[in-house]
TrEMBL record:
Residues 238-260 are annotated as: Disordered. It comes from Boseongicola aestuarii. It holds the Pfam family SseB. Residues 19-119 form the SseB protein N-terminal domain. This is SseB protein N-terminal domain-containing protein.
């Protein structure tokens, strides 16, 4: 059976136990995944009652990244709610409840304690600072680690329909400050905070949270867009239609489920 993205990330974490960046990538996959939360009974509207499990160390709720894994654990069909990992973290933080992930024979079988859930929520809640500088010199990106490029590619693939494309460049501002910049072209109005946060998460979960990566937004008609196209590393964002699927209960971050 093919490993899931969560399996692959957990295997890498086990293989490189001292590599913090690999561990961060597992938590990033967890936050970005669609997860199936085992329930005590069928959900009623936006109210859900997770099945709770008491262990010697903590109380747990259980999630699985594939429906068949949940069914196998429950020895048959069982009620569940589909949630994004980040919605689940928001729901559990402060409840003193841990998270059992893919418990059973899966390569990603693990337990996330309440302290780690709180850390992950705080990490996801961070927001980039806004600046008003305009680049004077634009050039190709230099010296960025491959894990950041891969992280950006993964994040932007999930931002379907929010912008047409993005360019990663090295820029110099008035006064001599140099930085790398990710410039989005033709972003949908109102999507700027989400795109900036996705960029920040790619930086943080690549283990480079102390690094700098500016975010900017331009229209395709802006002269700066032509400069970026000449030297920037291009990322094409998918059209919304390519990833359009009905949102199951709990997957809308603006309408999280409520614990009963």
């Amino acid at each position: 059976m093919t490993d899931t993205p969560l399996d692959t990330a957990h295997i890498a974490m086990d293989t490189h136990p001292d590599d913090d960046s690999v561990r961060l990538q597992f938590y990033e996959r967890l936050a970005d995944s669609e997860l199936f939360l085992l329930l005590e009974k069928e959900a009623k509207g936006d109210q859900i009652e997770p099945r709770l499990f008491d262990t010697e160390d903590m109380r747990l709720v259980l999630v699985f990244d594939r429906e068949h894994r949940l069914t196998a654990f429950a020895d048959g069909p069982a009620p569940y709610a589909a949630l994004s990992g980040r919605s689940l973290v928001d729901m559990l933080d402060g409840q003193d409840i841990g998270l059992g992930v893919n418990l059973g024979p899966a390569p990603s079988s693990t337990v996330i304690p309440p302290q780690a859930i709180s850390w992950l929520r705080q990490t996801l809640e961070g927001r980039p600072e806004e600046v008003a500088d305009t680049p004077e010199v634009v050039g190709p990106p230099i010296g960025l680690p491959e894990r950041l490029i891969t992280g950006l590619d993964t994040k932007l693939a999930q931002a379907a329909g929010l912008a047409r494309l993005a360019y990663l460049t090295m820029v110099t501002y008035k006064g001599g400050r140099r930085s790398h910049m990710l410039a989005f072209i033709n972003a949908i109005p109102g999507s700027e905070p989400a795109l900036a946060s996705a960029t920040r998460e790619a930086l943080v979960f690549s283990g480079l949270d102390a690094g700098e990566l500016d975010v900017a937004f331009f229209r395709a008609s802006d002269p700066m867009a032509a400069k970026l196209a000449k030297t920037g590393l291009r990322f094409d964002l998918p059209d919304a239609a390519e990833l359009h699927t009905p949102s199951p209960p709990g997957m809308d971050p603006d309408r999280p489920p409520r614990l009963k």
